[in-house]
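Continuing the series of single-chain predictions for the mutant panel. This is the parent chain; the variants come on the following pages.
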Amino acid sequence: MRYLEDYKIGEEFITSSVTVTETHIVNWSGLTQDNTGLHMSEEEAQQSVWKGRIAQGLLVMALAEGLWGRTPACAEMAAIANFGVKDWLFTAPVRIGDTVHALVVVLGVKPSTTKPDRGILHVKKSVINQRGQEVQRGENLYLLSRRPAG
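Parent structure:
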């Protein structure tokens, strides 16, 4: 188990990667009803500023969270809850066939002032494609247990 105290400011983690497929986009569209032509129709998407289909931004964000969840640093986390997302930006399009991974950096480790058994882990997450280009970035807050006394 990895408790709040086990994370250090500046600590970095690199996730594995995933290649975004048409199946990801179609399934996400069915789940969320985000089925605009930009994501679902090559013909419509060719008329856009992107000149072709792109993945839904929240799909890529969710994939990055899933990749983070598979790292030992997150999988062993004494998590109580995903506490929030801050300042998330979609900085470049992700297309079918792009492969992305995440770089996660610890920004803060803050024990609660009112509940001594828990605290907030604050991380920055950058989503990077196969060309080394950052395609998304933002911050996540996780509510974690602190190490039990004794």
